[in-house]
Amino acid sequence: MKLSKRANRIEPSLTRKLYDMAKSYDDVVDFTLGDPDYETPDRIKEAGCRAIREGRTKYSENAGVLKLRQVIAESIGKETGIQYDPSREIQVTVGAMEALFLTLACMIDPGDEVIIPSPYWVNYKHMVDFLGGKAVLVDVLEENDFVLTPEDFQNAITDKTVAIIINSPNNPTGAVYGREALEGISDIVKKNNLTIIWDECYKSLLYDGAQYVSILDFPDMKDYSIVINSCSKKFSMTGWRLGYLAGPAAFVENLPKIQENVAACAGVPSQYAAIEAFKGEDDTPNLMRDGFEKRRNTLIAEIRKIDKLSVKSPKGTFYALVNIKETGLKSEEFAYKLLESQKVAGVPGITYGDACEGYVRIAFTMNEEKIIEGVRRIRQFVESL
Ligand code: PLP
User: Fold this and answer.
1) Exposure on the CB side of residue 365, measured as CA atoms within 13 A
2) Which of 1, 211, 249, 349 fits 331 for a cystine, CB–CB 3.0-4.6 Å?
3) In angstroms, what is the span from residue 24 Cα to ligand 1's centroid?
4) What is the largest CA-CA distance in the chain?
5) Which pLDDT tens digit goes with each residue over 200-247?
6) Is 363 exposed, middle or buried (0-12, 13-18, 19+ CB in 10 A)?
7) Which ligand 1 atom is the nearest neighbour of the CA of 94?
8) Under-70 pLDDT residues of the chain
9) The dihedral of CA 361, 367, 373, 376: what is its sign?
10) Helix 122-130 × helix 95-107 angle, to 10°
């Protein structure tokens, strides 16, 4: 059967490869996927089950159930002070993943350039490639806390640039963008009439008491931003596949017609579960954040005891990039040998771009006991080299 050039261009990521390989070992410590081990809170599960029992099992509007769009708009309004019209400026999607895909599908013509700070979440580049655009990768450095500087952003802009994608807190680096960098970046976006695709999926996972800085905090940025988020990480709902985006009506009003041809709508029981997630009052997201912060502290302290490895403490997310350069191994070799000899799976940095060679990504989405055991094995591996 014929395969399109587009399908042939896409390589599976090493994240999935290592995850699949890890499955073939017993007693493995699997640090690969960003899938929180916490349960979806009961009240949200119950709302999903209730929706099924009550027969809310048919298609919804392509833009998503209006009530859900209303609670999303209210939540953004409360957090940022920026108002979105639920009927024209919010699109419900199958995870943040589909929010990104619909946004790019609605924006990119062949040859259009999208700037992506590197290391980057693999799917950004793949989606841009898949849609015939050109991903322009701009390296960000560990010395600069993995944050893109306005100067580097400005230098990457050409007459073909249409957008920049920024993810804060960031997968895989754990970086969080602060006010100064974002002020410079937002000025450049406005000056060049670009769009910023602002992926804030990990917004609920911010550590050390930090205050979140949103792209919407800067003057007029609603007009230049597509803000993307989902229930996956905040409410531990990765498998419910429920995401959303907010943006100016002139753009977002076009998304239902694309959605009609992709998924028709996000799963309807999931949409009702999400309504409960947004309107319910409970402290689960904060408790999860505190849990991840403790795990982060344990992981970082343990890794720092190992000669030849170093790590910057991530300011958000549940990922740490461990610098393995002193071991002399490339990231793929390190990851395969570590899995084979110690049954510990991490993701080779190279999958997140050339700028991430010399790093292995560790997702701390398991209990502390397991993290300590995993790092004990990493230490044995590094000492055996
Ligand atoms: N954006 C980033 C940076 C991610 O890491 C992920 C998932 O890991 C997503 C978006 C997509 O999340 P979901 O589709 O589960 O909402």
Assistant:
1) 22
2) 349
3) 25
4) 60
5) 999 999 999 999 999 999 999 999 999 999 999 999 999 999 999 999
6) buried
7) 14
8) none
9) positive
10) 40
